[in-house]
Amino acid sequence: MLSSPFIIQNNVMDLFNQITPHTTILTPNRRLSANLAKQFHTMQKNENKSVWQTPDILPLPSWIQRLWHTYSLKNITSLPRVLNSNQEQVIWEMILQQSKASDYLLQLSKTAEQAKSAFNILKQWQVDFTDPRLLLTEDSRTFLEWATQFENYCQEKNWMDSSCLTSLLIEKIKNNEISCTNEILLVGFTEISPLLQTLLDTYKNQVTHYEFSSRAESVCLTSLATTELEIRAMAKWAKALLEDTENSQKVKIGCIIPNLESNREQVNRIFHETFDVPNLFNISAGMSLSRHPIIHAALKLLSLSNEQIPFETISHLLLSPFLVKAESEILQRANLEVKLRKLNINMISLTQLMNLLTESHCTTLCNHLQQAISLHLQHNKLLISEWVKLIMQQLSILGWPGERSLNTIEYQVVQRWLELLNEYSVFDTILSPQTYQQALQHLTRLVGKTIFQPQTKDSPIQILGMLEAADIEFDYSWIMGLDDTVWPPQANPNPFIPMPLQKTLKMPHASAERELIYCEKLLQQLQRNTTRVIFSYAQHNEERELQPSPLLSHLSRLTADQLPQASLITPIQLLYQMRSLEIIQDDEAPSCSHNMKITGGASVLKHQAACPFKAFAQVRLLAKPFETMSTGFREADRGNIVHTALECIWKTLKNSENLKSYLDNELKQLIQDCAKEAIDKEAKAKNYSARYLDLECKRLEKLLWNWLEIEKQRPEFSVISHEETQEIMLGNLTLALRIDRIDEIPGVGKLIIDYKTGKNYKIDHWFSDRPDEPQLPLYCLTDVDHTVGIAFAQINPNKYAFKGISQHNIEIEGIRQSETPWNQQIIEWRTTLEQVGNQFLQGKAEVNPKNITICNHCHLQPLCRIYERPTTA
C-alpha cells in the first residue's frame, strides 16, 4: 500500500539535486541508506566541493526511533519504556509458558515468534482485536488470549512495543506535540503497511515516493545445470567483467541471490575459489553471532555445569584456541581428546572431566575451569545484569578469547559480543531474578538471533539478497535462483490469523496472488536500477527438473557459453602449475633394531602383506585415524563383548559334554549372566542408559544361544584355552599373540578357533604370497606338533558357521580337510609369513597395495599420496 505521490527521476543524482537541508530521505533498510549517502558524498567530491552538508538519509525504523527520542527529551516524565524485539520475544515466551496450551507446544520459542509476528501484523494492518473475524479458528482464539495478556502486562509495567509506538507517534503528531516540518522522500519501498502509511499521512503533502526511470539496456535469461554451477558461473562472470573494465574500482556489479542467508557458506567458498583478491567482493548477508567460532567457544564454556557433558562440548573445549594456555597445553589436551574417542565416551560428568584433565597433565585448564564454574555455583538466582558481570568474570578466568592476537573479524565479533552483553543487562526490567541456567538460556537464544556482518572495505562486487538490492544502482546485475519453485515463493500465512482475514487485507505472505504481485514489483525495481541484467535458474534440484519462473518467461534466452566467463585457476591448480618436482624413490625405511619393541601382533603381518607402507605408517609411525564416535557400542566393542561372553561361558561349561547336559533354562541363565557381565565390562564409565544396555543384552543373548546350538552339533571336545597370550618367533621378528580359543579333540589334537562377528571372512584369505588374513596360519605355527586344524567361528545374525581346514576330516561342518599335506602346508605358511615379517624388519615400506580396493578403506592416502603417483595417473 503506497498512497504517497509518485515522482519518476532519471537517476539518483537528479534526486540529490532537489533535496534541501529540510529534506529527509527514508529507505526500507540500512544498506540502501548507506549506499545513497555514499553516492551523495561521491557526487560532492566529483563537483570539487571541499565542504557540504550531510544529507538526512536513514531507514524508516530509525526515523521512527528518532521521532520518539526527540519527543522523549521534551517529555521526560511518565513515558513508557519502548521494548526492543528481543525483549518482546522474552515476554511472549513467558506468556506462552504460563498458558494452558504450553503442554501441547513442541517448540515454545518458535511458537512465541509466530505469535509475536501475528500481533505485529495485526497492529500494522490496523485490525482491532475485537474484530469478530479473529474468532474464526481455535488457534486465533487462543492467540487473542495471549495478545490480551501481552497488552495488559505491558500496560501494567508501563511498557510499549514497536507497533504501539507508531500509533502513539501518530497521535502526538495529530495533537501537534511533535512537529513535522521536514519534507519526506521515500526511496526503494515496494510496499508500506497501513499503520506506517497512516503515520506518513500525518505529514500531509510533505511525503513523496520516488522511483527511478529504467536504466536497463539489456535483460536476458539463462540457465545452468545445478545451483552450484549457477553460483560458479555468476562468480566467473563478475570476474570477467572486472578484467575487461579499465577502472575496476568504479564499475558496480550486483550478484543477487534469494535466500542468501541459507546459501552464504557455499557462495563464500565459491567466490573465494574464483577471486585471488578477496576484497573484490563483499557478501552482505551476515550470519548468526553464535556461528562465529570465537562466540561458539564462549557459549560452550559457559554451558559447563555439574550435569553430564556431551563429548562434542568436551572436544571443542580441549581443541579450542580461545582458552587459557591453549598453545602451551595443546599436546596434552589433544591426547586427552584422542583418549576419549578411543574409549567412545559420549557423556561425562564434570567431576570425571576434572580427574581426566589432571591425569592428562592439563593442570592449567583444570584449575581455571574449577575457578570459573565455582563462581555461578555459589548463587541460586540473580538479576540478569548480575549474571552478565559474573559471565564476564568466568570468561576472563578461562582466558577467553585466547592467547594469540585476534584478526580483524574476530576483533569485531568480540566487540559485538560485548555490546550484546550490555543490551542483555537491561533485561532486568522484564525478567525477575533467574537461575544461571535460565539466564544462560536467554543469552544463548539472544546470541543465536543476532545477525552480525563484519565491516569490510568497499568492493566493486556486491553479493546481496533480493530485498537489499532493491533501488541500489549497478552497472551489471545477475539475479540467480529464480526457478518456478522459488519465485514467486509459496504463500506462508501466519497460523494465528484466520486465512480469510489475511487474504482480504492482503497481509504479507497471505496468498499466492499477493506473492505474485509483490514479486513483480520487486523484479521491476531490480531492472530499473541496472544497465545490463541477467536472470538465471538451475535446471535441476537433485533429481527434480526445474523450469524458469513464469515472471521471466517473456525474456530472451542466452546460453551459458554466450556469457562472459573468466578463466578460473584455483589456488591448488596454480600451485600445481608452478611445481618444480624432484622425484626421489624413497621406499626403504630404517631397518628395525634388535631391541625395538614391535606391537600389533598378527596385524603387523596383515598390514605388510596388504601394503608395505601401511605397515610402516601404522606400526612404526603410529599414524592412526581418529576413532569415530558412536552413540552406542561400536562394531569393535560388540566384537569384544562376544569374546568376553564366550570366554565366561566356556570357563563354566569347559567341554561339549557339559554343554549338551545343560537344560535349556539352565543354559539360558548362564548365557544371561555371562552376557550381562560382558556388557557391563564394556559399558564401564560410558554412561549408557539402562534401557539401551538391556536391549543390547537381549540381542547378545539371542546371538550366543544360536551359536551354542551350532556348537552342540560338534563331536566331543574340550575348551582348554581362552584368550591365551603367547609369543612367537618368526625369523628375527617376535610377535605377541592373543588366541581366542583352543579346543582339544580327544585322540585327534588341537583346533584353534578365532571368533569373527563380521561376514566377509574366507578361507582363501589364508593362501597367497601376501595373505589377507595371516592371523590363524600364524596361530597354527605356535604348536605345529599338536595343532590339527584352524577355523573362523563366524557368529553373525545372518550366518552362524565354522570356516576352516584341518589335517584330516574332524567331522565339523564347515571345516574341510586340507588338500595340501598338512606338514607341507605348515612349511608354506611359515615360509610366507617369515618372508613378510623379514620385509617389515628390513624397512620395506613402498606404496604398493596388493590391490587398489585396499585403498578404499585406508586413511593413509594423504600421507602416501597414491593417487598422485605417475603410474596411477
What brief labels describe this structure?
single chain; alpha/beta; 873 residues; six-stranded mixed beta sheet; seven-stranded parallel beta sheet
Give an overview of the whole structure:
By secondary structure, the protein is an alpha/beta fold. It contains 32 helices and 28 strands. The strands form 8 sheets. The protein has a 7-stranded parallel β-sheet with strand order 10-17-9-18-19-8-22, sandwiched between helices. Strands 23-24-25-26-27-28 form a 6-stranded mixed β-sheet. A 5-stranded parallel β-sheet has the order 1-7-6-2-3. Helix 29 links the parallel strand 25 (749-756) and strand 26. The chain starts with 5 loop residues before the first strand and ends in a 9-residue tail after the last helix. The mean pLDDT is 86.
Q: Level of helix content?
A: 40-55%
Mean pLDDT: 86
User: What shape does the CA trace take?
Assistant: elongated
End-to-end gap: 64 Å
Using DSSP, what is the number of strands? 28
